[in-house]
Design a protein that fits this description.
This protein is an alpha+beta fold and 367 residues long. The protein has a single domain (38-365), classed as Sandwich (Jelly Rolls), CATH 2.60.120.330. 37% of the residues lie in helices and 19% in strands. The chain has helices spanning 6-19, 52-55, 59-75, 88-102, 106-109, 152-161, 166-194, 203-207, 276-281, 320-326, 336-346, 353-366; strands at residues 48-50, 78-82, 121-124, 138-145, 212-220, 232-235, 241-246, 252-256, 259-262, 270-274, 291-293, 301-308, 315-316, 334-335. The strands form three sheets. It has an eight-stranded mixed sheet with strand order 1-2-10-7-12-5-4-3. It is globular, with a radius of gyration of 20 Å. The chain starts with 5 loop residues before the first helix and ends with a helix. One of its GO terms (molecular function) is metal ion binding.
Amino acid sequence: MEQLTNEDKTIESTMILVQETYDHFPKQFIWPKDHLSQTSSEELNEHVIDLQGFLMNDKEATLHAANLLKESCLSHGFFQVVNHGVDPGLLELAHEHGRTFFKRPITEKLKCRQKEGSIVGFSCAHAQRFREKLPWKELLTFEYHENGPHDVVEEFFNVAMGAQYKETGLIYQKLCRSINKLALDILDLLEISLGVDGHNHNYYRQLFEDSVSIVRCNHYPQCNKPDLTYGVGPHCDPNTLTILYQDQVGGLEVFVDNKWKSVHPNRDALVVNIGDTFRALSNGVYKSCLHRVSVNSFKPRLSLAFFLCPKGDRELKAPQDLVDKHGRKRYPDFKWEELLQFTQKNHRADENTLEEFTKWLLSSKNE
């Protein structure tokens, strides 16, 4: 067998810390006390939006769905959708393949480890990027191209992990294609809810016709000290939309009305939250969803997240009529690759990412 490199050994050591139970909790996973708060016992009463009528071009149903979406996005940027058109059987099959992957030995998972400077591959707790406040999770990340190589997901699994993962790659390729279609449909509904001028019809959809999105399987192991750490700390996603399929364990929490509220898993629904990129594309009208993930000492948790992202060099700006409505342009034009690199190299994603990125971007351009 190929010898492990020093980098492999470092990640493997971190992996062991995650999987084993210790009386002395590993310090790199401990979050500062001022970041920690008790897991919420209050449930979020978010809108669960039925998309069936909208997807069938029913005008009345579309208006109702758009109004519910608007209420959610003005308040906290979070909602769930049912009758979304994504095959439940395919979702569960992808989940099962994800569970199987994370049960593999560490040496097997490290075959596709995330290399420095890359966002794709296997990672334990982002240990290759951070040295403190590590999230209590391991993750497998890959890309989906809407208008590029049609088998990019399948190719990732074949090349990075071997021919035995051919079926896994085919399943995820098919699922990504279906979720991407849903994401574009939700963009249309967001456009309707914002009242974007008819002259700008399909404004948002056109920005993502050649999207290069990020897909991530998240595994949150059992944790013997769940009050000291997070599966994911408080943050807003920097991308446009996040569509999430989760198991029934729970742990996702959203910040609303100055408190954290838990999200009750809905077996029939997909979770959707607004990211910083769409906040900018709405000229700040809609909120990025501030959320976190808690862990527990009883059960592991698994989720599959589809992060809708534009192509890296796509110029992003809010529709002009939204700017005119509100009297000013709140955010400068930017490219997705600039925001992505900012979160990879300059700023760890949190609730202030978009504001900090705006300052950094303006400063860079002035220089």
